[in-house]
Amino acid sequence: MFLDYFALGVIFFVAIFLFYGVIVIHDIPYEIAKKRNHPQQDALHVAGWVSLFTLHAIWPFLWIWATLYREDRGWGFNAVVERELALEDEVKQLNETVAKLELRLQSVELNGQPTQSEPVISDVQSSNKEEV
User: Fold this and answer.
1) Angle 111-95-117 (CA atoms, 0-180°, nearest 5)?
2) Where are the domains of the chain?
3) d(Cα 63, Cα 69) in Å, to the nearest integer?
4) Per-state percent for the chain, helix, strand, coil, to nearest 5
5) CA 51, CA 25: separation in Å to the nearest integer?
6) pTM of the predicted model, to two decimals?
7) A Pfam family matched by this chain, by name (predicted)?
8) CA-to-CA separations, 117 to 36, 65, 113, 120, in angstroms, rounded
9) pLDDT in tens, 54-103
10) Phi, psi at residue 56, to the nearest 5°?
11) How many CA atoms lie less than 13 Å away from 11 in the CB half-sphere?
């Protein structure tokens, strides 16, 4: 008789433990998002509850979503954006150099000689080498 009640108590304990365990597990991505100060914490929390109804089928994607963002580096694309901005500046400088060279070429074609105010091609090329 005692063992019957003991077994019933163990069954209830295991059922309650599993119930709360599933709830804690589904909330892990939200906790990661909170720790990382993720801008979409609320969406992750709601999606975690929705994952209960999908038998945690979307839970691995929530984990990935939560871990992609870090407050110190954002989404991780800062280096790419900085490199893109540097390349844009370099293209602007190259366009300016080409425009100066085209003007010089036009003046040479018209006058036969370069004017004193215009830079010599070797000076422009040496200044470009120093920038690189």
Assistant:
1) 35
2) 2-68, 78-131
3) 11
4) 75, 0, 20
5) 11
6) 0.54
7) DUF3302
8) 58, 59, 12, 9
9) 888 999 999 999 999 988 777 777 777 778 888 999 999 999 999 999 99
10) 65, 25
11) 6
